Amino acid sequence: MLKTDERLNEAISLPVELRAQLAEALLRSLNPTQARIDELWAQEAEKRVAEVETGKVRPLPGDQVFADLRTKKGI
What we know:
Layout: H1 4-12, H2 16-30, H3 35-54, H4 62-73
């Protein structure tokens, strides 16, 4: 098994294109895609649209929402 320094030196010695691919793969491993979270948000958005379309929820104008918040916060 290679030591960390040896692995790093080996990686640095790779051609630029391969180093770029390696760097991209390493970054992805640190911050994996969040496909499941995106899927859940899409489902939630679809649910909310359906609630508005069926009349279950009545949307409020954004100006009214912010005015209400300012009133509650005393701004």
